[in-house]
Amino acid sequence: MQRQTIGSLAVMLGPAVAVIGVFIFVPMLLTIWLSFQNWSTQTGFETAQFIGLKNFFDIFSNTSIGRDFKGALVNTAIYTALSVIIILPLSVGLGLLVHQKHVKGGVFLRTVLFSTYMVPMIAVALVFSKLYSPTEGPLNQILGWFGIGPQTWLSSPNTALFSIVILNVWQQIGYFTVLVVAGLTQIPVSLYEAAEIDGARADQKFRTITLPLLANTMLFASVIAIINAVQVFEPVALITQGGPVNSTNVLTYHIRRVGIERAQGGLGSAMAVTLMLSLIVAIVALFAFFGRKGDRA
């Protein structure tokens, strides 16, 4: 009987485990293996030569390889932090706005907000490259109506990365607003009614009911926002190509440069493994932070 049960489980889980193994674990293990090799992407795997941790020492050294990698790592961290800091509070605000039952058109507003997430990134990048144009861009023209001088947007190292962050926020905000609305619908209305009977103000209900009960949703949204931000590639590749002066050279784009354009597969794999480990550390820290807040509550 037990043998039959094991056999049934193997038959049911086997295809799924095989697919996960082929498309997820094999590429991950191959990347980790290549990170310890001296290997060119223009040759076969049989030419790879084991060099231990040399690739990892190189990317954190003071050579041009190390400086470029650390610059890309800092750019990715800034881009991720700004994206999460802007997207999460904004999505909560918009979620509360469209979730109000006495406000007409809430469903329409949710649809409009979510539609930005369905627009292909290549189209978003092309539109924003025109919006950011320093001479004929509509954004500078609108600022001119209020007496504000033209901004450099993508053409200056000081503003280029933040301009890409704004593009990302515009494209992602609808998705995260829908997540927040889904979380708000799970909060029992009776809690708000009891708070109103006790004379609680709107801000008190928000701090004592909405935010604590929205914690799990915000944790999930934070994880997805971080992963999406770390994986940014299309707007950089399509608009700035890492410039000006490497100010938008994020890690995914830099790994492509090293691994594909310069054919340094081992070095690119070491960078990819470092990025993966950094992402794991960030996610674990996030879970620990929310777990500690949950224990206090």
From TrEMBL:
Gene Ontology BP terms: transmembrane transport
Keywords from the named record: Cell membrane, Membrane, Transmembrane, Transmembrane helix, Transport
Gene Ontology CC: plasma membrane
CDD domains listed in its UniProt record: TM_PBP2
Localization terms from the record: Cell membrane
Membrane topology designation: Multi-pass membrane protein
Membrane-spanning ranges: 12-36, 77-98, 107-128, 213-233, 267-290
Similarity comment: Belongs to the binding-protein-dependent transport system permease family.
Protein name: Sugar ABC transporter permease
Species name: Paradevosia tibetensis
